Amino acid sequence: MSGSVYGALRPEEFAEWNDYARQSPLGNIFCNTDWAATLAVWDNEFEVFAGRRDGTFCGGVVINSRRLPVVGWRLANVEGGVLLDPEDAEEFARFYDALMGHLRRTGCVELRLLIRNPIRVGDSTFENRRRIDEFLAARGIHNTVPVNGTYWIDLKQDDDALLARMSKNCRRDVRKAEREGVTVEDSNSAEALDTLYDQFAATYGRKGLRIPKRDVFVATIEPLLRKDLMRIYYARFDGRIVNMALVARFGSARYTRGASIAAEFERPIPPTGQILHFEIMRRLRAEGYRLYDLGGSPGPEPQEGHPNYGVWRFKHGFGGSFAQDLGDYSIVLNRVGRRLMQSARRLHDRFSGRHVRLPAE
């Protein structure tokens, strides 16, 4: 068997890469080139840096970046993690050295490298991934987020087993919603996307947070809905859509965004978030998905007082295994260029007009 050879892919190789990423145990929507292409609305470019061994892909990453005009410097980001086969420190070293050489040649001044490969899932640890962290530490590169990960729901279970894993309160809320007539539907339509934006804006507006403007929001999601790489699921009560979830459907299914207008009802209504996600799990399982990723969480056990405690506790209630990411690493290749790029990016983000800040209710 010959050694792995890494390099930037040509566009005509993207379809083959997407097939490889879809089938990878750690493949996710952020490893998909159709997702990366939507980031053009944020003035981002993307490329796939991957390796082959005996003509077959053995790993790689999707890199998105923003370029500073004139000088051509770039700040780069790997959101989808590193797909690697074999997944060991020796292969990672080959990949890493090839990647750093490529980034230096193409004017990258900093790389944010999120390695989603979990170092721990529940009570199980993975020593091969720990050695990858040790390799990076030996190069002077350290994890910038001490604990970060997600809850994984194993979909190779029947309904009774899924319910048994949930907290008592979560299970009760599912049954209560069923009794009181909450229904769950799904759609990839433009109308559903418009409703999702309205509810997303209402949810964030209650907190006084910035959100993308409607045209930007649509531009980053609508192409993925058309290709069924994402789907909108929603819970309906008393004729109204009350709770919505946007789920990525590439590799491992992943919950990416949620919105709810339950707080706008003048009278108490049954809980809808729990039955919404329980039904999402059931539908994904029926379509052959083996894992449902509930999205980022800052640790295995919710901590009161945390700014995102409510969402964290909600996700924890489904009883999934906490998968702790190997790490979120910042790799500086040019310190002077990095400072200039960061300043330029902050100004660009501030004045680009792609966001709107809604007043808190």
What does this protein look like?
This protein has 361 residues and is an alpha+beta fold. It has 2 domains: 174 residues, Aminopeptidase (3-Layer(aba) Sandwich), CATH 3.40.630; 134 residues, Gcn5-related N-acetyltransferase (GNAT) (Aminopeptidase, 3-Layer(aba) Sandwich), CATH 3.40.630. 37% of the residues lie in helices and 30% in strands. It is built from 11 helices and 16 strands. The strands form 2 sheets. Strands 1, 2, 3, 4, 5, 6, 7, 8, 9, 11, 12, 13, 14 and 15 form a 14-stranded mixed sheet that branches. Strand 12 and strand 13 form a beta hairpin. Helix 3 packs across helix 4 and helix 7 crosses helix 8. The longest helix is centred in the N-terminal third of the chain and has 17 residues. The termini are far apart. 38% of the residues are buried.
Give descriptors for this structure.
361 residues; alpha+beta; Aminopeptidase; 2 domains; 14-stranded mixed β-sheet; two-stranded antiparallel ribbon; 11 helices; 16 strands; 37% helix
Order of helices and strands: EHHEEEEHEEHEHHEHEHEEEHEHEHE
CATH superfamily of the largest domain: Gcn5-related N-acetyltransferase (GNAT)
CATH architecture heading of the largest domain:
3-Layer(aba) Sandwich
Report how far apart the termini are.
63 Å
Strand portion, in percent?
Answer: 25-35%
Rg from alpha-carbon coordinates:
21 Å
Average pLDDT number: 91
How would the global form be characterised? globular
